[in-house]
Amino acid sequence: MRSLDDLAGIAETAAQLGRTLTLNSQVTEVRHKGDRDTVTNVDLSIEREIRAYLTDVTPDVAVYSEEHDAGSQLDPAAP
Known about the structure:
The chain is mainly α and 79 residues long. Helix content is 52%, strand content 10%.
């Protein structure tokens, strides 16, 4: 079992990954989901990368994410 310090380090790395992707990505597509919310290609890309990282380093921990698991009609695998 991992310690809280180990999990905190993994979470920090995931956050840094998200920050790097945010700073180095450009929004080229905005889609509406529902009547008040939007999602961009950057949102989907960041979620996909962070999910992949977390699944790789913590295969025993479930990962829940907004676009992938919230019943969105958007395809998180789409570019």
